[in-house]
Amino acid sequence: MKIFLDTTDMEAVAQWLPHGIVDGVTTNPTLLRKAGVRNAREIVRELAQRVAPGDVSVQVAGETHEEMVQQALGYRTLGENIVIKVPVIRPDGRPNLDVMTTLTRQGVAVNATACLSLAQVLAAAKAGARYASLLWGRVADEGGSPEAVVADAARLLRQYGLPTQLLIGSVRAAGDITKALSAGADVVTVPPALLERWLDHHYSRMTVQQFNSDAGMKMGTK
Ligand code: E4P
């Protein structure tokens, strides 16, 4: 079981790493845009150094095979633990599996992203992706059952001995982290605020308050 942080926020990464539950980081162009990142290479290099030996995924956004491969090879120079996210298909519906096979043959680890179906996960696995990113919230947006797709994908990857790790992204509620792991996800990538919420519990707080008070501690002294 692995947990990744879905973020470009270096402070959040630094805050979570010492707790020993974060195994890697995923980014995407939307997260970079929302964070106002102008120089993606700089932040990706910093993340790679900070998170090593854990993987850091960074996404290519070209239109052609050549463009995406060049971008990927450029990002790869930023760290051995950089994994290249390649959207499983292009906006016009053509598959990007050729980009994945070109990269994997050159020893570049691939994270096939924007997978919304079982077919896309299996195709990405056949193309040699290290991770297949199945987007939980977006499957649900379309009326699908993310739990069922995750369970089927996990079963089929195992059944055919495919080494691709099933990575669940687009997690929007804390409970979905546990649901995805229970359904068979190898990795769940989570925004930092949601990870905090996943671990918190109001009754645990009250319980610890009681323990501390019984231990003679005054509240709010530290
Ligand atoms: C992670 O790898 C994905 O890019 C991300 O979780 C997508 O989340 P969204 O569907 O909320 O944009």
UniProtKB/TrEMBL annotation:
Pfam families: TAL_FSA (PF00923). PROSITE patterns: TRANSALDOLASE_1 (PS01054). GO terms for molecular function: aldehyde-lyase activity; transaldolase activity. Its EC number is 2.2.1.2. The keyword Zinc-finger does not apply. Keywords: Schiff base, Transferase. It is found in: Cytoplasm. It is an enzyme of class 2 (transferase). Its main location: cytoplasm. Signal peptide: none annotated. One of its GO terms (biological process) is carbohydrate metabolic process. GO terms for cellular component: cytoplasm. PANTHER family: FRUCTOSE-6-PHOSPHATE ALDOLASE 1-RELATED, TRANSALDOLASE. This is CcbR.
